Design the sequence.
């Protein structure tokens, strides 16, 4: 309850979804650049539908993939999500069935991919994938650690995005807390006017607080 | 072993002879003593994973294919699972085990594929079922981060340990709390970068206890093909395979003794360096 309340008030004051989406995009772009990869994506686990959803994409596949969904426990991303274990796979082209599956979920046929779970506290929020790093270089455990660092950053950003969405839905909804969110939004708007209405509204709220 | 029950909770003077261990441990444990000539024959190894593709050239026959699912609170055990491998990962783990212990009995227990929701509970029930079957080795390249499963998994891991089932589990290579690999009753495995499948290292700074081959490993994948993979997921079956070899030669070993043999034969211990 208290988290929803904070979220409702925060949502009234801040329109944050776009900021966090930009942060996710920035993470996949940096991951792609650091690993010299063709593409990188972040999938969010959508619990109500039990599906993985493309949330951010850099490189090949690009924005047309955002919003695409697939099952949460099959394929590589699904395995990584459920097992909490990062995987790096090369020579994907050697396996037609595998190529087909990855093509469906990436928009092109990669030669290799790295997939890592996005863990925040005890929850797994999604999966980060990096596709087609140069294969002439042998994979190293140092790269695996680097991938883990990106995953940590992406998980924090995904957590913030989900909080922002929950807050926004509270604001937009007709639940009992929505009025608080709307109130916070109105107060924020009033703060910019100099007709004294903000001061009156705050006095009224103080009186309400005393009653409660 | 004697026919009388062995003393379990205390050791009376007249029972001392009854726990005399038949195995004469040499002064120095060598790899030749531990598994020289062994094939894994007679050892039952369970792969708790995404299923295993049967008759893949690198895997061969899979003696048991079981699927675990949940219908509400009811656990459903499908004895003849026809779904194969829903990801490819279980086939990869089974292939690594068979490459080291070619004659071991392989049981695939599939705990994946029914969606993310409920996957933690299915994992737990799959492990419970596998422990009840008394497999000699359970390969678990999976973990959960959910605290609510930690104490139940801990009980199961201890129960396996006391029933002579060696649970071999993938460690995390990220600083997160996940289970069951952190429990001392299991063997936890991380990766090293060497290409020798028999190179494994004891880690003097646990919780990760052993490092095995986990980088650029060529493994079988579902669909009859092969892929080159990296991850602790693939290091784990290397230790499970060596464990199967050791048990096939020394049936009497308990998980504690097995772990000790792995330590004494590790690449960084004693003369094996």
Sequence:
């Amino acid at each position: 309850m208290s988290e929803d309340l904070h979220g409702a008030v925060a949502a009234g004051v801040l329109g944050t979804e776009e900021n966090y989406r930009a942060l996710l995009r920035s993470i996949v772009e940096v991951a792609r650049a650091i690993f010299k990869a063709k593409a990188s994506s972040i999938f969010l686990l959508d619990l109500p539908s039990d599906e993985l959803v493309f949330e951010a994409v850099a490189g090949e596949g690009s924005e047309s993939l955002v919003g695409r969904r697939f099952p949460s426990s099959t394929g590589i991303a699904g395995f990584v999500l459920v097992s909490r274990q990062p995987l790096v796979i090369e020579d994907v082209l050697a396996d037609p069935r595998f190529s087909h599956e990855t093509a469906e979920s990436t928009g092109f046929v990669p030669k290799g991919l790295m997939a890592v779970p996005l863990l925040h506290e005890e929850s797994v929020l999604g999966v980060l994938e990096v596709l087609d790093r140069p294969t002439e270089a042998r994979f190293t455990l140092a790269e695996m650690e680097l991938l883990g660092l990106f995953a940590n950053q992406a998980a924090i950003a995904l957590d913030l995005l989900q909080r922002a969405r929950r807050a926004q839905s509270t604001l937009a909804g007709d639940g009992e807390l929505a009025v608080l969110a709307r109130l916070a939004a109105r107060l924020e708007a009033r703060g910019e006017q100099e007709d004294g209405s903000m001061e009156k509204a705050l006095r009224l709220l103080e009186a309400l607080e005393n009653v409660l | 072993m004697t026919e009388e029950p062995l003393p379990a909770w205390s050791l009376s003077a007249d029972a001392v002879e009854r726990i005399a261990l038949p195995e004469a441990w040499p002064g120095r444990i060598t790899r030749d003593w531990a598994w020289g000539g062994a094939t894994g024959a007679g050892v039952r190894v369970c792969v708790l994973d995404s299923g295993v593709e049967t008759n893949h050239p690198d895997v061969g026959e899979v003696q048991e294919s079981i699927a675990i699912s949940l219908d509400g609170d009811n656990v459903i055990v499908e004895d003849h699972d026809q779904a194969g491998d829903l990801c490819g990962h279980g086939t990869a783990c089974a292939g690594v085990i068979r490459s080291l212990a070619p004659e071991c009995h392989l049981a695939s227990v599939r705990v994946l594929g029914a969606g993310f929701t409920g996957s933690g509970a299915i994992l737990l029930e799959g492990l419970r079922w596998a422990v009840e079957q008394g497999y000699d080795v359970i390969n678990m390249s999976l973990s959960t981060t959910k605290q609510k499963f930690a104490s139940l998994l801990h009980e199961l891991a201890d129960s396996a340990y006391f029933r002579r089932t060696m649970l071999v589990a993938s460690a995390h290579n990220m600083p997160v709390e996940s289970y069951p690999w952190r429990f001392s009753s299991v063997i936890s495995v991380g990766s090293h970068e060497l290409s020798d499948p028999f190179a494994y290292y004891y880690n003097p700074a646990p919780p990760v206890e052993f490092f095995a081959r986990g980088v650029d490993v060529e493994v079988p994948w579902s669909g009859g093909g092969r892929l080159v993979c990296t991850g602790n997921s693939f290091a784990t079956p290397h230790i499970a395979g060596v464990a199967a070899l050791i048990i096939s030669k020394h049936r009497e070993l308990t998980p504690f003794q097995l772990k000790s043999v792995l330590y004494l034969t590790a690449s960084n211990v004693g003369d094996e360096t």
